[in-house]
Structure formats: structure tokens, C-alpha cells
Amino acid sequence: MLAENKLKLFLDLLGSASKDELIWMNGYLNGMVQQQPASATSSVAEPAVSKITIVYGTETGNSKRLAADFAAKAKQQRIHAKVVGMDQYRLTDLIKEEYLLAIVSTHGEGEPPVAAKKFYDHIHQNGFKLEKLKYSVLALGDTSYPLFCKTGEEVDEQFNKLGGNRIAPMQKCDVEYEEEANSWFSNVLKSLSTATTLVPASTPATIAAKKTGKQIYTGTVLTKVNLNDRGSNKETYHIEIAAEGLQYQCGDSVGIVPENPTKVVEDILTVAKVDGTKKIVFKNEEVSIYDLLKYKINIIYLTERLVKQYAEITGEDIPATKMDLLDLLKIYPVKDAAQFETIVSKMNAISPRLYTIASSPSAHEGEVHILAVKDTYTINDEKRYGLCSTYLSELQVNTEQKFFIQTNKRFRMPADDKDMIMVGPGTGIAAFRSFLSERDATGATGKNWLFFGDQHFATDFLYQTEIQNWVETGVLTKVNVAFSRDQHFKLYVQHKMLQHAAEVYDWINSGASFFICGTKDPMSIDVENTLIEIIQQQGNKSLEEAKKYVELMEEEGRYEKDVY
Q1: CA–CA separation, 452 vs 20, rounded Å?
Q2: Would the pLDDT of 3 be above 60?
Q3: Are the CB atoms for 207 and 170 separated by under 8 Å?
Q4: 20 to 30 A Cα–Cα from 307, which one of 96, 123, 181, 527?
């Protein structure tokens, strides 16, 4: 754009020129433009790297969201980014890759997500080389767990062992990952802009985790009650804990580090023939063997990796399996106390268990409520019980209990005047007891629709009285329940959704948020598939269009899941 004084002169000249003079000026200007050097034009220089591949391994969807965000940013830099889940990635393409970014989370006892297992196993087979590969790894995790970002560390190390070169150091991210993730990708883009910056293979590929400073609360147990009635197949405990200075939001979780059963600890000491009072060092801390077994390390249902480690230390030939430490000691005894000390010093610390908070900061000030079902599983035809759920079921009123709050920014209620549909069978009702208590206490005007399910109406209708009161007072606009074992066919929450398909679609099409809380597989998968089916049928859309509709809801923050 010309400056005002130059524009006036230009217009005056054009206004006084003849037709022939205008033709001459047009040709003259075109010739001048053609003679300008390329650097004077507004064209954008081509990037040094034109294409990259971003693979992601995820359980909750965070890695997938980041991969999509980074692909969009790469496109702005004129770099084409292919985005693919590790479960869908064609493994034979790996040896052909030149620039690859891996975004992967860690779950359980340092395990890769289920969707990443095939990719993870493939790169650990060591039957090939990746000498063309330039890569970087973004590791997602939770510093509350002992094996923080373990999967990301192992993927990074294995790429390096196979001959790959890092273009940026691995970045570990805690649950609040946005800042570190974006910083990591900025570093990656800088490296890609020159395609010459490589981090030597000898450089340690770890970056210190950001300290989250989680506050440990010491609370007092106020109430513990089994919500299931006599004759139920379940034990579901509602536990209330009071603590000074307690702060949380609806949608957050409470973290509990359980203690190992005293009887099991004593049996281990007896079978191993060791002195429980003897002090040994565990993670730079001197602790008695008894306290180590009781409060520090996981001794229940050890992973295959730990069983293999036990086999290597004892020299025993133990098949790949999961097993309690006590059973290992009985079947494959240690040779002496020194060997036992070596084994326990290398074991994992007890991981905290997270429970979605069932209370509201407005309705239950100074308290946090937990809903926990006593977990059962079978090993060698013997019924076993989950460590933390059993621990919680045995808590005594008026005793102290330590815990921390785990924030969950991706599971938040909408504005007070917005509508919600909540699907929470079983202990999934915890989050929605929190949501409804908060809306009741604050007088929120948005409509609320709850889908709840369990096995039997008579014995398993959790928080029945409260739900009925919310219906009577108008806090709950609608409620639909499904009790799977009360008829000759199985009836689940997704079947109730289908029965009200037209209204479900009307709510979400009018802006309602849709929430799922509870078990991931199969419940949350079935509910999501049903939601897609409803949108497809009621919205007269194709399957792909219905899936895109749900993806858009997720991008808008109107479709959120808290599943486990």
C-alpha cells in the first residue's frame, strides 16, 4: 500500500494520462516487477524438511490430541505431517522413516498403553536397524507413579540402540503437560528448520520432570458405609474424609497410597526366613525390611517384568506370568537372606490409586468423598482381592488417612446455564454425584440428565435416595436407570440411551455436554458407539459424519470421559 502522499501523486498521474500513456505505464511496471530478485518477493522459503511422521500411543486420548495439534502447527511451517496411532502404524514402514516423532503415555506398572503394545514390542525385537531415522520422543505420565514416563524412556532408548539419531531430547510431561509439550515441539521445529541439528547418541535422553508439588493432606475418616444391600454380589464403599485447607474441583480425583496386608507381610518374612527389623536401603532411604514390605513396595500381583527379574536373581526358570511375591517365594524359594534383600531392593514402590471424587466443594466443604468397589480377581482358581479397594474397605472411622488431589482439567462441568447428559454406571456415578451436588448447592440453571446402571435395583442402586431427591427438587431433569440382571436379558445404560435416542440427539444438538465416567472396557466403548449410532440415525448422517460430529463435540469441550 502506498503512503498517502505517494498515492495522491499516483492517482493524479493516472487521471491526467491518455489511453496510450496508460498502456505504456502498465507495460513498464510489469517489466520492472519481472526484473525484481526472488528475495524481494513475498514467497515463503521452503523448509529444510518437507514431511514428518507423528505416531502416538494413548489410553485417554491426550497423545492423540497433541499429535493432531502438532500436525497443524507443522503444516503452518509448510511441513506435511502424517499422524497415525501406534496400533494402526504399518510396522514394516519403520525402517523407511526419516523423520519420526513419537508421543506415548505410560500406564499401570510402567506399561505401554494397550494401543501401543504392538509397536513397543516390535522395536524391542532388535532384528533391524534404523540408521536413517531422525526422531524425538514426547513422554506423558504422572509423577504420582513410581515409573514415571517409563514407556517413553524405553521407546527413546530403543530408537537410539537401533541406530536412530535424536533431533531433540526426550521430554517428560506430568499431568499438566501443555507447557512442556509445546516447548518440546518448538525445539523439534527448530531442528527441522535446518535438518542438521542432532543430539548425539551418547547424550542422556532424559529431561528432569517438572515438580508438581502435590500437597499431601492428612485427613480424618468420618464415615465408611457399604452402599450395596444384603444379597448383592458387590461391596461398594462410600467413604468421607475431612481435612484442613482442602481444595479441589468437581471432576478431580483423590490419590490414595495403600498399605500391604499385615498377614501377607508376616508370611513373606516367615517363608523367606529374614529378620523384619533389619535395615536396608531403598531409593536412598534406610528402612526396616518390615516397613519396606508393609508401606513401600508393591508385593501383590507382580508384573511379568518383575517376575522375570526375580527369575534372573534366583536363577530359576519361571514362565512369563503375573504372581504375588509370597507365591513366588513359596514356589521358587530364595537361597538366603542376601538374595531376598537384592530382590526387594529392586522392586517397584506402591503406586497410588486414583478415585474420582464423589463430593462437591460447595456442598461438602472441608470434606472429600470416595466411592470404591472391592475389587476381586482369580489366580489359580483362588479368589483374590484388590490391594487398595480392600485397604479402603477396612478403614476405621476416626483414624487418619493421607491422600492427595489429582486435578483433571479435561473433565469439567460446563457453565451453570448449560445442559449436561451424564452416563455413569457402577462407581462411575461418583463424578456425577459431585456434579449434581455442586449444581444443587450453587443453584445452576442448566438441565441435567443422568443414566445410571448396575446389576440389581434392590441391592445395587447406589445413592438412590439422593438421586430421587434431586428428581423431586428439579435438580435432575431426567434420570434413566438400567439394572442388567433384573430381567432375562442383559440391559445396560447404552440400551436406555437408544430408547431415548431422539431426545438424546435433541439435547446434544442444542448444545448439551455429554459425559462418561466408569470402566473403560467395555462400558465406555459401548456408550460411545451408541452415541455415534444415535447421531447417525437421528441426524441422518453417515457413519463418518457421525464420528466427525463426536470429534467436534470433543474439540468444543462438550464430550468428556473419565474412564479406567
Answers
A1: 83
A2: no
A3: yes
A4: 123
